[in-house]
Amino acid sequence: MSGHGDPIPMTSTACGPLRGVADVPGDKSISHRSLILGAMCVGETTITGLLEGQDVLDTAKAMRAFGAQVTDHGEGKWSVRGVGVGGFAEPDGVIDCGNSGTGVRLIMGAMATQPITATFSGDASLNGRPMARVTDPLALFGCQTVGRSKGRLPMTLVGARTPVPVRYVVPVPSAQVKSAVLLAGLNAPGQTVVIEKEATRDHTERMLQGFGAEVSVVETEEGREITLTGQPELVAQHIEVPRDPSSAAFPVCAALIVPGSDVLVPGIGLNPTRAGLFTTLREMGADLTYENERVEGGEPVADLRARFSPDLIGIEVPPARAASMIDEYPVLSVIAAFASGQTVMRGVRELRVKESDRIDAMAKGLRANGIVVDEGEDWWTVTGAGHGKVAGGGLCASQLDHRIAMSFLIMGMAANAPVRVDDGGPIATSFPIFEPLMTALGAQVSRDV
Ligand code: S3P
């Protein structure tokens, strides 16, 4: 079921060549951070290209509840008049973060060192996800929490009245945990230090620097060590949100498997902590090129050109690359189904605690479409059927997970029989224009009535 309404069953059918330009929406990670950091400075932050997906809209609503003035000026232009570091007001009601783990975990971090109390909740997917990974380090600052069993939402946080800075080694590769600690560190005196053993997306560090905070990053024996000096005065910014590589993944992958396709996906953020999928696709033999490479708003950006690639081969994805493509494994497994040979994905335990258990959700749906999948706790393999030999015809459960729904709809575009998903509703959380965008390229995606 969709978190925000009745289920929307959808079907995707094999189509002719996909051609044209795919203007995908703004980056989800950067959109959340723009609103949250904008709310923590004094003055007006202006944003263009904000992703207007439900996840980000829920964060905008939350920032208003904490006292920021958040205004939608239309066409992706937004402004945030912030309340300053430590200036959050206590919300009147429950903060509903919908489907968004990023939203709730970053906002919890931002409020944990402020003398206010707030209660957080979400949809069935979010309320099942582990929150101890953020509340454990937030407790070190002096924040108290009461939630459901196994550290799940709904949960109330009582922010620290006299926060202390912390030194924290993040035990799982998670940019959300790292970011929650850094945002909490903003209102703690002195230096907060976060160490990550594996580098994860670094938008929070980059953006904190952009907003005027003192942040240094050094590589040490323990890992990547980030030091933030607390209680800065953040300076309002103008932010141009690059387009989301995680959304670009869908038209790119569709073009690789639909015969005759040639699709341009312009202006995609290629921050190395995010671009692992594209490297992997090229290793598999994808005809995928970067055009017009440039830097925009401090982030590397390029236009991606993807063409039909009939000779894809399965590969072993290096585990060290996992963090840089963690959200892309579902759609990679679809590409793996159209490749020849086996694709092996190891070191991906984190996939089990996303919007769904993504290994389980993809394995079930791939098998329903005639693909052989093997899995363990932190690995899975997909045995490719090869181009033209993916049976399709399956009904796939999206499990309240946008990326599962979109991955199977991409599969249907080149499978021998239509592929159905039980609920495409969650797609609106991250890629609200997925259906019209794919249809305009030539895809046949429809809502079942
Ligand atoms: C995100 C971090 C990742 C990713 C999510 C967005 C972020 O989650 O899966 O979609 O914006 O920080 P984890 O921190 O759980 O790896």
UniProtKB/TrEMBL annotation:
One of its GO terms (biological process) is aromatic amino acid family biosynthetic process. 3-phosphoshikimate binds at K28, S29, R33, S174, Q176, D327, K354. Its main location: cytoplasm. Monomer. Residues 16-436 form the Enolpyruvate transferase domain. GO terms for molecular function: 3-phosphoshikimate 1-carboxyvinyltransferase activity. Keywords: Amino-acid biosynthesis, Aromatic amino acid biosynthesis, Cytoplasm, Transferase. This is 3-phosphoshikimate 1-carboxyvinyltransferase. InterPro entries: Enolpyruvate_Tfrase_dom (IPR001986), Enolpyruvate_Tfrase_sf (IPR036968), EPSP_synthase (IPR006264), EPSP_synthase_CS (IPR023193), RNA3'P_cycl/enolpyr_Trfase_a/b (IPR013792). The active site is at D327. GO terms for cellular component: cytoplasm. SUPFAM superfamilies: EPT/RTPC-like (SSF55205). It is found in: Cytoplasm. It catalyses: 3-phosphoshikimate + phosphoenolpyruvate = 5-O-(1-carboxyvinyl)-3-phosphoshikimate + phosphate. Pathway: Metabolic intermediate biosynthesis; chorismate biosynthesis; chorismate from D-erythrose 4-phosphate and phosphoenolpyruvate: step 6/7. Its EC number is 2.5.1.19. Catalyzes the transfer of the enolpyruvyl moiety of phosphoenolpyruvate (PEP) to the 5-hydroxyl of shikimate-3-phosphate (S3P) to produce enolpyruvyl shikimate-3-phosphate and inorganic phosphate. Belongs to the EPSP synthase family. Phosphoenolpyruvate binds at K28, G101, R129, Q176, R358, R403. CDD domains: EPSP_synthase (cd01556).
